Amino acid sequence: MKIRNVSAFILVVCAMLTLASCGQHNNTDQSAESSSGSVSTGAESIAEPDAQTNPFTLAYYSAEGLHPYTCDNAANQTITGLIYEPLFEISDSFEAEPCLALKCTVNVTSASGPVTEEGNTDETGREDQSDGGETEKEKNKRSKIAGETVCTIELRDDVKFSNGETMTASDVVYSLEQAAKSGSIYADRLSDVKTVRASGSNTVEITLDAANAAFETLLDIPIVCIDTGRNAIPDGTGPYQVQEKNGKAKKLVKNSRWWQGKQLPTEEVKLYAAEDSDMLIFGFGSGAVSVVATDITGTGSLTYTGEYDVVDYPTTNLIYVGCNTRSGPCQSRSFRQMLNYAFDRETLSVKMLSGHAQAAVLPVSPKSNLYDEKLAEKYDCSEEKAKELLQEATYYGLTLRLIVNSESTFKTAFAAELKKELEAVGINVEVKELAWSDFSEALDSREFDLYLGEVKLTADFDITELVSENGNLNYGGYRDDALEKLLTDYQTATIQERSKAANKFYRAVAEEAPIIPLCFKNNSVLTHWGAETVITPTQQNLFYHFADWDLQRNS
């Protein structure tokens, strides 16, 4: 998609996201040591690259560092995808693909259903954040499927770090232990880990105090060399390593010890010193920065102008309508079912989110193999079915209160369209646009019939927080033991049985309708390379399969 002289929106702050945007954070404390695998040049400062001579350049906030676990700056995290590799890559269909791991065996040894417990008090690493917000008390709670899981990972034996050290199980154990610590951006997703231990030089065993048969989809976590783990920039196994000037990253250069040994689209990656938002805007607008990642429909966006190309990629960001199941008309199951048929998801995705979303009837991305098209079709938009259910329930003439966070123009426009679609089937709607604090308070006190929410799920599409009785994001107060049993079956199903278990669970969610899935957002990559450039970004790694990218500019 070519965009000329129009504005786009780059995500800076979005409350539901873990990763905050460029230049908006306090400096992360880092070791004063330089990475032993980095190349020191002795120069004095980071040069701002010339776009004509340096065709591949990324924005870099030097004050934020490049430590893969503690750096929560979005631009810098993008860079780390070229330096470090995980045990498993997550594809654009949200499947776990072996990278540093050869294979993984996951055994759920017990499961007893959803429970809520005290969580990590450091919110740096939370990934399941809702556009609904959370109170301070709720932030310290989390829901999971109680039980035990043992994950056994066999590692590759031909991997070397950029400093020449061979990767072993000890490096992986160290990396996962560091990633699980308070202050790490991965702390929340690893909060169920009870133990990590090496079994020989090439096997790692992870024990969870929760039941999750899809745990490998959470292991796209960078692995670092144990010997350099305390450095500001630890050594990694990726295609590039950092070249420094006086202890500061200058650029990325090809890692000659990269185990994959593939030809790369560029020998080096320049770093553009973007110390604030204005510098980033100028850098990308002038062409000095080659690529930026963006949530075009996100809250708190910066405005960029100029000529660029847009490539979308799917995310786990679910936009949905939540129902108050404790009072008002949404107490009725048939009324909530009606909502499934009332909303035209394709129109919402195209018209309201400018096509940067994928319509979804089920609470899983349409890109996932778990998304059942036939099941989705059964519960998709049908004005006729909606009116039939509405007539049976005799709810004509009611006025529903739909609340929405007023800080996002996309969300408020989205809510206005929902109102229009509900009124088309005979339901009156009052839309309340509330500031963030008021919106959060209304959710907590359940002062709504419907709310428009957005949540970033993990790659295993676990919605325990949304639909279990004490779920952190279950603002509508929904409770159903049968659905929780199906949720437990889904979360504990083997690879062979997972699709079948997912189908049963998603069918129950559609029938019970405590939440009404609408779409999964796409994020975008803006580039100056030309519309025919072949790139394959994913939510977890902007440079997924980077060796296969074609960065030749079109004339």
Q: Can you put this structure into words, describing what you see?
A:
The protein has 3 domains: 2-82 and 239-313 and 523-548, 3-Layer(aba) Sandwich (D-Maltodextrin-Binding Protein, domain 2), CATH 3.40.190; 88-228, Dipeptide-binding Protein, Domain 1 (Dipeptide-binding Protein, domain 1), CATH 3.90.76; 316-522, Dipeptide-binding Protein, Domain 3 (Dipeptide-binding Protein, domain 3, Roll). With 555 residues, it is of the alpha+beta class. It is 22% helix and 26% strand. Helix 5 (333-342) packs antiparallel against helix 8 and helix 12 (481-492) runs antiparallel to helix 13 (498-512). It starts with a strand and ends in a 28-residue tail after the last strand. The strands form 5 sheets. Strands 1, 14, 16, 17, 18, 19, 20 and 21 form an 8-stranded mixed sheet that branches. It has a 5-stranded mixed sheet with strand order 3-11-12-13-4, sandwiched between helices. Mean pLDDT is 85; it is low at 1-54, 120-130 and 132-139. It has helices at residues 74-80, 136-139, 169-179, 277-286, 333-342, 345-352, 373-378, 383-393, 409-425, 436-444, 464-467, 481-492, 498-512; strands spanning 2-4, 8-10, 39-40, 57-60, 88-90, 96-98, 101-118, 141-155, 193-198, 203-208, 240-245, 248-254, 268-273, 291-294, 302-304, 307-323, 357-359, 399-405, 428-434, 450-456, 515-527.
